Amino acid sequence: xxxxxxxxxxxxxLTMSRAMVEAIGHEMRENEEVFYMGEDxxxxxxxxxxxxxxxxxxxxxxxxxxxxxxxxxxxxxVGAAQQGMRPIAELMFxxxxxxxxxxxYNQMAKNTYMSGASVNVPMVLTAAVGGTxxxxxxxxxxxxxxxxxxxxxxxxxxxxxxxxxxxxHNAIRDDDPVVYMFHKRLMGIGWMPAPDGPKTPVPxxxxxxxxxxxxxxxEGEDVTVVTLGLHVHRALEAADDLxxxxxxxxxxxxxxxxxxxxxxxxxxxxxxxxxxxxxxDYRSYGVTGEIIARVAEEGLADLEAVERVAVPDVPLxxxxxxxxxxxxxxxxxxxxxxxxxS
Amino acid sequence: xDIMVAVNELQSMFEDMVTARYYEERLQEEYxxxxxxxxxxxxxxxxxxxxxxxxxxxxxxGVCRHLRDSDTVTAPHRPHHVAIAKGVDLKxxxxxxxxxxxxxxxxxxxxxxxFDPDVNFACSGIIAQGCPPAVGAGLAATKRSExxxxxxxxxxxxxxxxxxLESLNLAAxxxxxxxxxxxxxxxxxxMPKDRVTDVDDGSQRAGGFDMPGVRVDYxxxxxxxxxxxxxxxxxxxxxxxxxxxxxxHRRMGHFMGDPESYRPDxxxxxxxxxxxxxxxxxxxxxxxxxxxxxEEIRERARDRVDEAIEWAKxxxxxGPEEAYEDVFVNPPSGVTTEEPxxxxxxxxx
Lengths: 342, 349
Ligand SMILES: Cc1ncc(C[n+]2csc(CCOP(=O)(O)OP(=O)(O)O)c2C)c(N)n1
Ligand SMILES: [Mg+2]
Hints:
The structure holds two protein chains of two kinds.
Chain A: H1 2-11, E1 13-14, H2 16-30, E2 34-38, H3 54-58, E3 63-65, H4 70-82, E4 86-93, H5 101-108, H6 111-114, E5 124-129, H7 144-149, E6 154-156, H8 161-173, E7 178-183, E8 200-201, E9 215-218, E10 223-227, H9 230-243, E11 249-253, E12 256-258, H10 262-272, E13 274-282, H11 287-299, E14 305-311, H12 320-326, H13 330-341
Parallel strand pairs in A: 2-3, 2-4, 4-5, 5-7, 6-7, 10-11, 10-13, 13-14
Antiparallel strand pairs in A: 1-8, 6-12, 9-11
Chain B: H1 7-32, H2 57-64, E1 72-75, H3 80-86, H4 90-97, E2 115-116, E3 121-123, H5 131-143, E4 150-155, H6 162-173, E5 178-184, E6 187-188, E7 191-192, H7 193-196, E8 213-216, H8 221-236, E9 242-247, H9 265-273, H10 276-286, H11 291-314
Bound molecules: thiamine diphosphate (TPP) and magnesium ion.
Keywords (chain A): Oxidoreductase, Thiamine pyrophosphate
Pfam families (chain A): Transket_pyr (PF02779), Transketolase_C (PF02780)
GO molecular function (chain A): oxidoreductase activity
């Protein structure tokens, strides 16, 4: 009986939001200096369920609803972190970074360096990202590249419940600022059905996933597909479809953008010779270009073909036919894999 | 009634208000199509978020009654009642909300991003970010020696945002013709006002900028009309900005699909009990307007709304390739793979 129970515990599947919340709850229990600030994180439990149930356990002093003043409360997280506390601040949608970016990129991200590391900023900035539900140009972006471009912050993008928990433990314990970008479509929110995939078995006990370790989600010989977030699942679907045609794609989930696990990507390209990079961010000056550049710098001889699949350089349009057009779909990924092979 | 407002003005406000209320009732039905029994935000003829303004119509109607087409209005994420009172093209606005090609923004903007330059209306989904452009419209009017004004609508949750406070200061120091209208519905999603600010009366924020601040404590259209008349008159006369806060009521969830489990039942019930539309109807009656005439206004509003919705649903959807258009009015070559298909912009004004 006891054995059966523990087996069940290992098999226990969680949504990505539950897994994220479990890690936050655990760290808050262990360390009184961890607290969470954001809009609608208390009674509402986070618009995207990022703090569901935490108010009941930890109360309003540690699960703090704050005014719609992102500059003030994200900056306050910076200040509290510099005092040695471990705040988590939530930007409800990453798209809102515009109203508070100075605190993020000039203070949070630079204070360590500008102080010659005499100061450090052990905070987590969580933010919901992504489209696919027609919320238009100001509520649908991922902006992965924007945050990863600016030095001084670690950038984490989970694609499964298992990773969400391990990366969150690591993020809170990290002595540097970590931007934790969770995709709305993956959270398992009742009103925004998730695809198959992000809901995974999650161990009860805490565990960490080190930053800078990409995950080979599917091994393959023919083409390397490098992606992150929601598009991990779309790429896996594309790979499964193509397998029926005898095309064997390898799918790599980057999991963290800063630090970036270039080695796993290079090893894969060495094997396949063909690289497809898939991103839900804008095409130019972003993740796709960066991955291709790294492979070109260090593995040019292996490289026979390169394709990138990303949002063309337009703001996210509202109407369904246009949103579907610009956010890469499974068919777009399939087409890119085929074309990398031809 | 202690406030004297001409009967025809009362009737016009009433028409704006019933139009907005009925419009949103209809939108609600359309929105829920395909989203029941399980609510899936991306399903149905209107996907994405939808923020409705039932209970807030008096603020929009009372302010916009004093505005001309040439006056600018910026609205926040909850824009329909303001757009209707400002005279935004109802058919094209509806087509936009349905994501159609003939919508105000050709289906690119959706309900939080409505733009109708014919009546100088715009809105934005980022809290308080409509304030600076309203200041800019006021600045343009001043530079050109025109007597038009600009009004920025925002919620009470937005009064703690930098863009709002910075805008108050800029408008005040330059004496610009701008009116900031705070619709206080007591809630910012799940956060009650007293959790996020220590002032009950948001118009007190004006004091720090040496600007008049006025609060209308109840959402009677006539009271709003009166307060707005003074504020807009002052701005038009070149005497600078005003901050006007109006108590309104949120009769619904923050957005469609909001479970509102954070909200006490008494508060929900109180919002249902107060209805500025019914109060204005009573005012009309006491001014001697016959029930038949009141009903005629309601009917006219319903017909107009029904017609707009039918029209919108008949409109074609944009093609996928239209996503690549309109990033620039003068598309630089090399940005898209498409041939630039635009007429050279800027030629006709
Ligand atoms: C800068 C920014 N932060 C947060 C949000 C998310 N958000 C959308 S509406 C809203 C509440 C707004 O409350 P209020 O200003 O009172 O307007 P109401 O919704 O009550 O009309 C919030 C926090 C946003 N859109 N922009
Ligand atoms: Mg409000």
